[in-house]
Amino acid sequence: MHKINNRITAREVRVVGEGIEPQVYNLATALRLAEERELDLVEISPTAVPPVCRIVDYKKFLYELKKKQKEQKAKQIQVTVKEIRFGPNTDEHDFNFKLKHAQEFLTEGNKVRAYVFFKGRSIVFKERGEILLLKFAQALEEIGVVEKMPSLEGKKMFILINPKKKK
Fold first, then answer.
1. Cα–Cα separations (whole angstroms), residue 61 to 5, 54, 85, 118
2. 12-41 pLDDT, tens per residue?
């Protein structure tokens, strides 16, 4: 929360605002300047030396701050990671079905984390899982970029694919 008017504790402040020359004033002078304009003295940068204060209508200042935050939030892109699971013996039809889903995820701007899950003794087919994931990455190379090559973690072998940047 911002300190305003008499709640400001610094002795000297740098004052900025419309129609005001940015200067360092003692607190009493700065408060008088704000009062003459029928506005508030708002501390906007308390860590600066001396603290920076703006002469502005406090309600309007809060409104514009909220508006800016809302715009920034709207511009943010949420990146989610979608998972696709394979077995070491996944056949062609299932592979193509899951490939189609991965293509949809990447075009929507999501990351794809594909993994081969080895059950029981199937861990002896590690190479088969790695080949499957590399084939998967190769099929997606037009719309995705491999961020992390296949790596074995426990009973799962992962690969991470990012969507390509649009030009």
1. 14, 10, 51, 58
2. 999 988 888 888 989 999 999 899 889 999
3-state secondary structure of 20: coil
CATH numbers and ranges of domains, the chain: 5-71 (3.10.20.80), 81-163 (3.30.110.10)
Phi, psi of 149 (to 5 degrees): -65, 165
Q: Which of 89, 84, 76 is nearest to 118 (CA)?
A: 89
As a whole number of angstroms, the distance between CA 152 and CA 128 comes to 12
Per-residue pLDDT tens digits for 106-123: 888 889 999 998 888 777
In terms of pTM, does the model score above 0.85?
no
